[in-house]
Amino acid sequence: MKPIATISRTKEIMEQHHLSLKKSLGQNFLIDVNILENIVSKAGVQKDDVVIEVGPGIGALTEQLARQAKYVYAFEIDGRLIDVLKDTLQPYHNVTVLHQDILEADLKGFIHEHVGSDVQVHVVANLPYYITTPILMKLLMENLPIKSITVMMQKEVAARMAAEPNTKEYGSLSIAVQYYTTSKVVMTVPKSCFMPQPNVDSAILQLTKREQPPVMVHNEDFYFELVKASFAQRRKTLKNNLKSAYKDQLTTEQIDEAFTQSGIDPTRRGESLSLKEFADLANTFEIYLRS
Ligand code: SAM
Questions:
Q1: Contact, 86 vs 97, CB < 8 A?
Q2: Per the confidence metrics, is the pTM higher than 0.85?
Q3: What domains does the chain contain, in order, with CATH numbers?
Q4: pLDDT tens for each residue of the chain, 291 residues long
Q5: Distance of CA 177 to CAs 34, 151, 180, 218, 277, Å?
Q6: What residues does ligand 1 touch, defined as CB less than 6 Å away?
Q7: CA 79 / ligand 1 centre spacing (Å)
């Protein structure tokens, strides 16, 4: 039988199940098997590995993952697709589809319960674009025992995640992603590879979890809070953004002193600071806010 990721098979499956696609759930299905094989190979999935997939759709990527991995767990929010997947993935006995919103799932508990501690777990997905950032933040911040995350997203969002300082793409998302992972864009994918075609091209981003954060931060929550405040108004200087954020807790003199102590020039803009410079700034501001 033809792979699911072909125009003819996708159309056939949709007709057979009277399926109309929900734009609100980011349903753009992949119809290019070469791209899918490439994703699976770039993800580095080996025969003994387990994969968690977000949003299997009608099973295009799931099928390719099932051919390569030991086991695939696929979380799908759309109840209509559960029956479709039972049918399309019927030849594969190493797949479990879970009818669940990934943002609500207790992934740590799930992995603990279903996967042996000596097994490598990868997350591989063609993400629903409307919730790319919340999904990735969940995967990164819950400190899950996963080896890698290889995910398709809008090209612009991938560029923001992998961005360097002093570029227009660099912002709090870049810093959060780079704090937890090393990331690289492994492939760009034209919109013609999807059905229906999205408005923008896509990219596959591979994220590898760091063993240790790249910079020493005293209080992670505060670090990310200060980063966010520093980008509140991109065109404003750090001093103006942080003054607006902390005017109720710190005097102007204390803010000036904190900048001097940190060694960061207050007239710079957030977009010019590295992760390390943000750490110096946050560690110093935290001391002033605590005293
Ligand atoms: N993997 C399929 C493919 O590549 O053809 C479909 C990918 S499609 C871009 C995104 C899928 O994620 C859809 O099937 C959609 O229903 C599902 N989805 C959307 N929101 C979700 C959520 N919160 N939790 C789990 N799945 C979700």
A1: yes
A2: yes
A3: 7-209 (3.40.50.150), 220-290 (1.10.8.100)
A4: 899 999 999 999 999 999 999 999 999 999 999 999 999 999 999 999 999 999 999 999 999 999 999 999 999 999 999 999 999 999 999 999 999 999 999 999 999 999 999 999 999 999 999 999 999 999 998 989 999 999 999 999 999 999 999 999 999 999 999 999 999 999 999 999 999 999 999 999 999 989 899 999 999 999 999 999 999 999 999 999 999 999 999 999 999 999 999 999 999 999 999 999 999 999 999 999 988
A5: 28, 13, 6, 18, 16
A6: 25-30, 54-57, 60-61, 75-78, 81, 101-103, 126, 128, 131
A7: 11
